Amino acid sequence: MRFFFSALASGLPYLDPSEKEDGNFATGVNFAVAGSTALSNEALKAMIITNTSTNSSLGVQVEWMTSHFKSVCQTKEGFDVNSLQKACCGVGEPYNFNAGKICGTPEAKVCPNPDKYLSWDGIHSTQQAYKYMAGYLLHSIIPQLHCHGA
């Protein structure tokens, strides 16, 4: 909660929840769900665990985020919608990522167009993704911090 107030005091905008129909997403999107878990409710149920606070898991949040990226990235930044969750360098389906066969191992392959991917190796972003994030930070967020040099 401290971060929330620090962000507001710094001039950062409140982010509407991704599922809000009339939300203003010009400054960002909030995909968080209180009480969500990394495992799906089906996986928890199989282990005889009940989550009464929500039926939303990390997988649901990733689906929301992917849907948002598909609506924004393809048209604005040129990222390939079919590669938003895939690593450019790696091996394994469905995300081209295998922790035992990371980028740099003989089995790993590198995509021909890294600028169309968000993730380089399943852990690090591509240069194009970092460029987009840095541009967003420099042009959208920092001016809202109201920090002025002497």
TrEMBL record:
Classification via InterPro entries: SGNH_hydro_sf
Listed PANTHER family: GDSL-LIKE LIPASE_ACYLHYDROLASE FAMILY PROTEIN, EXPRESSED, ZINC FINGER FYVE DOMAIN CONTAINING PROTEIN
Family: Belongs to the 'GDSL' lipolytic enzyme family.
Name of the protein described by the UniProt record: GDSL esterase/lipase
